[in-house]
Every structure is written in structure tokens, then in C-alpha cells.
């Protein structure tokens, strides 16, 4: 499967760090910018403003029109090739980035949005507004994921509700959305992301891997049956 990840969190581009891609040069071809590939098989392609900044600590202080223009370039001027899935990672909220993505993807089929929340009410309140945004713009909600749902002990692997639990599932029920599942706060997953290791390869027997795998498979099945 060929997958592209478009990182439009212009003020906080974290995808390159999370996938341990460093700061490779972005080249151009006749079709536009060449995305950065994570593997030799070119099965996962990335594009992020993080690859374009001269200084990784540089702040992106842009108004809406400049953000919109770059997102337009990311959608139309990147040589993505034939993709099975293009995943667009957006910042929290309902801002210029979200509107720009929808505007530039009008000529393509947008399958829908995956909304991620933590269990706390302050987070589910934000996601409730994102649900309203999706309904107003005609974007189908593929489902809701509850992140940081419990804490996995690194010593005994028991999951405890350090914060709270169930806020995402309750939000899905009250809004008539699909609840995709929970992902716990797992130190092994956090360390893997920080160190650039593939969590799925390193800890295939963990409960966290099972949760992520189940959510991914549910989404793929949903997309394939449409």
C-alpha cells in the first residue's frame, strides 16, 4: 500500500521528528516537489514545512494568505504519484489550515476526517466544535479516537486511569459518531517516537500496538467498503 502523509501543522511540524526523518533536502522534478520517502520501497511519502525550514527552531509567523498558498502548493505541486491513501495531519481547532486543505482538495474525493481527543472535558469540548466544523463543511466523520486513555505501567504493563477515561467514547455516542477505540499513554510508544524507532516492529505484542492496529484496520475496512 502506498501512503502519503501531508503535514499541514505549519506552526508545529512534528511528523519529520516522529518518523525520524531529520532534515533531508527537498528536490524538484518536472511534476513539482519530490516528497521525502521513509523507505527504499517508497511506500510512505512525507511532505512537511519542517523539511523546508533552514533552522528547525525557526518560528513560522504567517498570516492566513501565506499559509493557504503553501498548503495549496503541498496539495497540487508535490509529485505524490499513485497513492492509496493521503493522510493530512492538521493542527487542533478549525482554522485557516483546515479550510485551505478542503479548498485545495475539492477536485479530489475526501473520504473524511478522523478526530482525536483526550478523555478530559476541555479536550472533548474542542473536538465537539471540530465535529460542528465537519458538518458545516460537508466532511464525513470517519470516527473518533480517544488518545492518552489510561497509563501503561512500564514495569507490569497494567493500564491505570491516571487522568480519566471514556470522554472520547461518550462524545462519539452523544454526537452519533463512530468510536474507533482508545490508545493509552504508553512510555514505550513515547520513547520510540523520541528515539525514531518503529514501535510496531519493536513491541508487536503490546496492548498499545493492538489498539493502534485495531483502529487502523477498522479505518481501512471502512475506506475499502465505500
From TrEMBL:
<dbReference type="GO" id="GO:0005829">
    <property type="term" value="C:cytosol"/>
</dbReference>
<dbReference type="GO" id="GO:0046872">
    <property type="term" value="F:metal ion binding"/>
</dbReference>
<dbReference type="GO" id="GO:0140663">
    <property type="term" value="F:ATP-dependent FeS chaperone activity"/>
</dbReference>
<keyword id="KW-0408">Iron</keyword>
<dbReference type="GO" id="GO:0005524">
    <property type="term" value="F:ATP binding"/>
</dbReference>
<keyword id="KW-0547">Nucleotide-binding</keyword>
<dbReference type="InterPro" id="IPR027417">
    <property type="entry name" value="P-loop_NTPase"/>
</dbReference>
<protein>
    <recommendedName>
        <fullName>Cytosolic Fe-S cluster assembly factor NUBP2</fullName>
    </recommendedName>
</protein>
<dbReference type="GO" id="GO:0051539">
    <property type="term" value="F:4 iron, 4 sulfur cluster binding"/>
</dbReference>
<dbReference type="GO" id="GO:0016226">
    <property type="term" value="P:iron-sulfur cluster assembly"/>
</dbReference>
<dbReference type="InterPro" id="IPR019591">
    <property type="entry name" value="Mrp/NBP35_ATP-bd"/>
</dbReference>
<dbReference type="InterPro" id="IPR033756">
    <property type="entry name" value="YlxH/NBP35"/>
</dbReference>
<dbReference type="InterPro" id="IPR000808">
    <property type="entry name" value="Mrp-like_CS"/>
</dbReference>
<keyword id="KW-0479">Metal-binding</keyword>
<keyword id="KW-0004">4Fe-4S</keyword>
<keyword id="KW-0067">ATP-binding</keyword>
<dbReference type="Pfam" id="PF10609">
    <property type="entry name" value="ParA"/>
</dbReference>
<dbReference type="GO" id="GO:0005634">
    <property type="term" value="C:nucleus"/>
</dbReference>
<keyword id="KW-0411">Iron-sulfur</keyword>
<dbReference type="GO" id="GO:0005930">
    <property type="term" value="C:axoneme"/>
</dbReference>
<dbReference type="GO" id="GO:0005814">
    <property type="term" value="C:centriole"/>
</dbReference>
Amino acid at each position: 500500500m502506498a501512503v502519503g502523509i501531508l503535514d499541514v501543522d505549519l506552526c508545529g511540524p512534528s511528523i519529520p521528528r516522529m518518523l525520524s526523518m531529520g532534515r533531508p533536502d527537498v528536490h524538484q522534478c518536472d511534476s513539482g516537489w519530490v516528497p521525502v520517502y521513509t523507505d527504499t520501497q517508497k511506500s510512505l511519502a512525507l511532505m512537511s514545512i519542517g523539511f523546508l525550514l533552514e533552522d528547525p527552531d525557526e518560528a513560522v509567523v504567517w498570516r492566513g494568505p501565506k499559509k493557504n498558498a503553501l498548503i495549496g502548493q503541498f496539495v497540487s505541486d508535490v509529485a505524490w504519484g499513485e497513492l492509496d491513501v493521503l493522510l493530512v495531519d492538521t493542527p487542533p481547532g478549525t482554522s485557516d489550515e483546515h479550510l485551505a486543505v478542503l479548498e485545495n482538495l475539492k477536485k479530489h474525493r475526501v473520504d473524511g476526517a478522523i478526530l482525536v481527543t483526550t478523555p478530559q472535558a476541555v479536550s472533548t469540548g474542542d473536538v465537539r466544535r471540530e465535529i460542528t466544523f465537519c458538518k458545516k463543511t460537508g466532511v464525513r466523520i470517519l470516527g473518533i479516537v480517544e488518545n492518552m486513555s489510561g497509563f501503561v505501567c512500564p514495569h507490569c504493563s497494567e493500564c491505570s486511569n491516571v487522568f480519566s477515561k471514556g470522554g472520547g467514547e461518550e462524545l462519539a455516542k452523544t454526537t452519533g459518531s463512530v468510536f474507533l477505540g482508545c490508545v493509552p499513554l504508553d512510555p514505550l510508544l513515547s520513547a520510540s517516537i523520541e528515539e525514531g524507532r518503529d514501535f510496531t516492529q519493536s513491541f508487536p505484542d503490546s496492548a498499545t500496538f493492538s489498539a493502534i492496529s485495531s483502529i487502523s484496520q477498522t479505518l481501512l475496512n471502512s475506506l475499502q467498503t465505500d
